[in-house]
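Exercise 4. Each item below gives a protein and its sequence. For each, produce the structure-token representation.

Item: Adenosine 5'-phosphosulfate reductase (Rhizobium beringeri).
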Amino acid sequence: MTAINTIAEEGPIAEAEALNDRLAGLDLAGRLSLVSSLGGRVVFTTSLGIEDQVITAEIGTHRLPIDVATLQTGRLFAETLALIEETESQYDIRIHRFEPEKADIDTYAAQYGLNGFYESVEARHACCGMRKLKPLARALEGAAIWITGLRRGQSANRAETPFAEYDAERHLLKVNPLADWDLEAIKAFVSANGVPVNPLHQRGYPSIGCEPCTRAIKPGEPERAGRWWWEQDETRECGLHVAEEAAAIAAQ
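Answer:
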């Protein structure tokens, strides 16, 4: 990073740190309300997992000016697709779908095969890149703030997740309003508020992504152990929330 870039980023980084401190003392509704009042386009990206459903419920219930988007990768579980429509109906909101480009899918299939992600980490990253990272870039176009459902308890790789941080790759504020929530608090909120959730959660899938890349977890395994289960790296991610991986995938 050059000196000029370092100076340019000091402002957003300090802003994120100040916001992080403010969010720490608020409940979820207060956190979302504060973020939505800061100005600029605010986007929440949901994978329709249980924590994301909690955030969507609060956005819809309080009619907050936050755009809700999902990455409809083309390989999602049928249960996930059905939940998109159910959630829209229950909260009278629009969940904007962002899909991969057909040309990217065709190029990937020609190089790796449609299911080539099982064969190498490179191929899996390339698949995540065209099905998730490129659609995410479109979803966040023009956004000032990106809201996610990241929690510290999801994996060791996310244990230090702040409430707010500066995303230098995408040049925006990234807000994680559920960072300090544990899974029991999530489940309690869902039960108390009648939040619709993916039925796969009851079948041993605490973390749900694309169908070919997700399995149920075994007793005692971490929440995200079922994602890209054939790989050995315990910190594996798709690149959405890890700057180094995002940059590497984009370079491919």
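Check: Residues 217 and 225 are 6 Å apart (CA to CA).
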